[in-house]
Amino acid sequence: MKTPFYKILYVQVLFAIVCGIALGIFYPALGVDMKPLGDGFIKLIKMIIAPVIFCTVVAGIAGMQDMKKIGRVGGKALLYFEVVSTVALVIGLVVANVVRPGDGFNADPTKLDASSIAAYTDKAKTQSTVEFVMNIIPNTVVDAFAKGDILQVLLFAILFGFALSMLGERGRPVTRLIDDMSHVIFGVVGIVMKVAPIGAFGAMAFTIGKFGLGSLLPLAKLMGSFYLTCALFVFVVLGLIARLTGFSIFRFIAYIKEELLIVLGTSSSESALPALMRKLEKLGCSKPVVGLVVPTGYSFNLDGTNIYMTMAALFVAQATNTDLSLGQQLTILGVAMLTSKGASGITGAGFITLAATLAVVPTIPVAGMALILGIDRFMSECRALTNFVGNGVATIVVSHWEKELDHERLQSELKSPSPDVHPALHPAQPTQPAQPVQPLAA
Ligand SMILES: O=C(O)C[C@H](O)C(=O)O
Known about the structure:
The protein is mostly helical. The protein is built from 21 helices and no strands. The relative contact order is 0.18.
């Protein structure tokens, strides 16, 4: 029997977003009051991210006998992230030079309200590589889970999974338990996703109520060029990568439309991270690759954030009449390659990363960021959407490189998605037997 349209999640989220926009426009104060609904939904998702990553990674790699394979998946993922992130940074740089969205502002940085961005520049402490690596090691296991630090949980999960695989037969009951646990956790994901429309409504009503659509007009050229560049990146660059891997980017985007709407509503790519992991497994990517690539992608593969960084840095320079030589522009690119690592998928993260980049490049006045602070929430949405699609494509590509992608399932799922059969999502349907733990192919 066909599900009635009003029960379909993306229809509900779309409707909620439209209602949120309407409320924000007509009753801005009430819209602002809706903030807890969005925040509450994001908290619910954050609550489950650490267990999702732990269970997926442990269940995925526990069957492996060879640590080298984990390193190989990680190495391939990092190579992909580095190449694609650099392409994103270069595209942002080129478009900002061609479109020159900051020309004509003639802003005097000494007269801009630098105090408004102090909160961001304070957070943007640049980290040395050693500090970055040290931060991946948790103080205690409990601390990693308590903070919900993705890379720290990932590190512990890899070690745990590998130790479990070394136990052989003796470790089987624990592996099975954790695999079963992952089904339970994804059941929680399913329950939480039911309230996604409420979260998207609250977050959207707040955004429009607080910042107002009127704030977009003076910066329409920057916004327009950023959105178009991201679209170009997704459909041309990621589209080409998808084609070479054997799937259509359009079909993939249609496949994850619910998640994209949730990301749009909440302006945080993390808000749909567990759902993305579930969908990628359903598409035929193996558990270990999904478990390793998605969480690392959230720290190393932020394509939307990268496009934004070079475009926004050049915008600030142009708006404050700061001339930049090619060498200085390439320095920004090099610095952004480092500062973007470790930025997370929460709203506003890209703005903090921009502050970190400009702090290292003294030529561009950091105070110029005050010009774009008012529209950052609207930029954040596009950064998050692009980051999200980028991580999905990255996981499919690395699965393909590792020969851990079921191409037949990928094609059939993309063509006609199978219903989600988890009992938490569809109580009336029978439960699918648990998938056996898949070891990586030799
Ligand atoms: O969520 C993301 O991926 C990005 C974030 O929304 C941001 O504002 O930079």
